[in-house]
Amino acid sequence: MIGITGGAAGGFVGVGVGIYVLSITKSTEAVLGGSSTATSGATLAGAALAAISNGTLSDGGFGFASFRGVAIQASSSEDIFGLVLAIGAGAVGVAIPVGVTVASIDTKATLAGSATSSLDVNVSALDKIKTITIAGGVGAGAVGVGAGVDIGIVSANTSATIANGATVNASGRVDVNALTWKRFTTYTFAVGGGAVAVGAAIAVWSMGSNGTDSYDNGQGDSGNALSESGSGNNPADDADGQVSGSGTYQNILDGVAPSTTPSDSGAQKTQSRINAQTSGPASTIQTKGNALGSPTGDALTTPIAPGTTAQIFGNVTASGDVSVNAEDNIGFGGIVGSAAGGAVGVGASLLVGTIAQETTAEVGGTAVISAGGSLNVHAGLKEATSTIAFAGGGGAVGVGAQVTVLIDSSTQLAKIDDSATIHRAVGGITVRAENEDRSVAALTIGGAIGGVAAGVSIGVVNLTGSTKASVGDATIGDTGTVSSLSVEAEDNSTARTQAIAVAAGIGVALNGAVAYTHLHPSEVSARVSGSASIEVTGGITVSATATPEISAVAIGVGVSGGASLGVSYAQASNEVNVIASIGNGADFDSDSLTVTATLARPTGGTNPKNAYANAVAGGGGILLGAQGAVALSSTTGSVSASLGNNVSLPDGDVTVSSASDSQTQSDATGVGVGFIGIGVAVADASSNVTTSTSVGTGLDTESTRTGDLTVGSHGINATVAASTAGSSGVVAGNGSIADADDDSSSSTTIGATAHTLYANDVTISSQNEAQYYIHSDSTNAAVVGASGAFASFDGDTSSATTLPSGFTIAATGIVLITSENDFFSLAGGSVGEPTDNVEAAGGDQRRRRRVERRCQPAQHCARRHGCHALHDAERRDRYLHDRGGQSPGRSVDLGSCCGRRGVRGPRRRLRRNDHRRYRREHHRARRGEHPRRRRLDRPPTDEPHWNDECAVLRPRPHRGARRGGGHDLRHESADDRLRRNDPRRPKCHHRRESARSGRARRRDRSRLRAWLHPGHRRLERHRRRHHRERERQRHLDRRLLPRAHADDREHR
What residues form DSSP beta bridges with 214? Predict the structure, then answer.
């Protein structure tokens, strides 16, 4: 469809108006009615049907293949082009073009009868939509107004269904495909010129499925398309009435009953046309025993869900695979721009795009399926949205303002409903909902030039929706073989917003850039009902994974001969809820069970991040230059894996785990130059992810169970904040603030149970790692000025492993129960050094860590008599950070292991001046004086070295240390003794043990541990620095402590 219009006007007052409206309502159907039977005896040697969907969809379109068997395919294609231009000129010139596109498209393929094929059966619905619309206006005159408006509303529903009551028998495979390919493109521009010039471009598009899952046929009957119940009749009750055309759903399609006749002259309704053309053949067929029913009624014996939907509600038997596949491939692109020039020039542009696509693949509650191959239920979305919007204004007063808003609320759902029956699926069952690659990007540019210039750019991207895969109270594998069951949900969403604002003014320049990106799917979930009856020969896997990647970048630049003011604000907010669960009362017959929930860090690109915000503001004015940049990023949400109450574990391996790995980063740069120069930069990054794994009460196993049991949670959250502030002027000042916060937690919980759990190896663990990097830099050049740089990290994390009282494990292997909470710096923190000509400068760096870790198995964990299991309960805090620049000093904090005394947390430090305190206390001891109560447990010049065999960090004894003056590690816990006496522990001998040095032997067996991050390059610098200090200390000891050297040699 093509729509072209335009308008032009001239004169003292010239108004050019052009308007087009394209309205499309289209319905495409392919139906095998409820009373119809299709039989195909085709062979591989017979003729093949061409252009039948093979179920694939790519960026290029649909995939087709030759086909033999029974095929029911509805295919629709829409190609829309719209162009509207308007020109106005005169003392007052106005040009207003308006283009409107409205489309409502339905494509349905339905098998409601019986189909028998010696080869394959294919039910497919395909819809391809492509739109290109252009709207532009030019206005010129003393007052020139140019505008361009483009509006589009497209609603498309595509469904492929094997309806309730239908019967399908195929010697090959059965495919049900609902596929859509959509591309929407808009170009909108506006130009205004004159003493007063205004250019405005507006594009508003709404795309997706605007239908709802409810319906009303106008006769008092209503229902829900996703269930078989409603206030009207049940679809199953209407099956007998379809032959006579009395079904209650027949009026939904086209709003006609079977007896409808044309009400307007020349009008032809769908049913009337069909009846007119088939009256003769219908009587002939009827005499042969087949009554011709109402196609419109038969098509909707089962209600259709909105959006893109593939469904099976009938009885399907196939020797090959059975596939239920719904996929959407959507692309939206737009370029919107405006420009205005004059004494007063105002350019403004607005782009709004909303996408709400529902993608559903469903095996309904009335379905009965038997497959000699595999059963695949798949709902997928691939989206590529990219827009560019710009606005410019120039004149004595120039204003350029641009706003882009993109909203995406698409959902994907793959499910097997309650009461569904899958007797057999030899190749296994896969239920998968995926957001394969949802990419939404917005670029906005606003610029202005003039005596007074203002450039404003605002970009907003908001992604919601959900991705769900589920199995309800279904019956699976009751009479046949099902090799495996996999329920998977995966979300790969990428959202990027970039806002650029530029202003250049002779007197005043104002620039503002705002970029806001928000990702908040309601959930990414994979669920299996505990009431389902499932028997599989292999394993059951329930997996939910989210890999979000969002960014917000705001850049503002302002230059002026007088004053320049600018603000850049960027915010990236990532909130994801990932759920993998098995419900209460599950008692599945399977070889193994795996339940995993994962929040993953992106892997593509250069240093990808889950949430990234970058704000840059720079500018200068002869009199005043003031710029501020604020960057905020956050990653929040929950990742949970769970088993419900009263679950019986299978005999094979069982894994229930949750894992999160995220990186959140904020960068801010603010620079102001002028007679008065002001620069401010604020960067804030925060993480608050709850990673939890839980097992409900009443967990039970068979006494013959020999599989492993793993229940764990592991959270890794990296927060990075970096800020740079600069200023220059006669009077100048700046402030730089970098703040990183981590309030994440990891927990593993097992509920109370009166049963003994039988297993081989048992691992119950929780671990939380807080990684951080903070950097704040402040540079000032001024006659009179002040600057400050502040960097802080606030960590309040926890890790907990909780077991109930009376918890009993009968294990033939190793039982490992741990809880660990770790902090470490990614690259150390620093506060930049102010320049020399600063009158007043300040810097500060703070780190606050609240550590909470609980491991509560010791008094409750019971080992059955006769089992040789190793029970290892660990509690550990690890730290490694380096502070430089303007920090008070450098330190390396060596952590604790298993709660041993004398090495608690960050209290054991190596500082640059510690060797002086050590020498003073050593001299006191030699003179017979009582040393200070708070003596150093370790000389400052110890050189850490790595022992590959034991994989622990050990301090080398200081040459000047008196005998017995090293670490106080005499207190050995029961767990330490158990590990030390374990015959499986590798033997390590670091140095010779004398017969009289029992304390040295105990010290060797209780080794000091410290955290070393893999590949950490700062370790080598620490080693070299401590080596140099050790050599200097040796030189001093040779001169001052000769007898101490003799004692030390004797000791060693």
Answer: 224
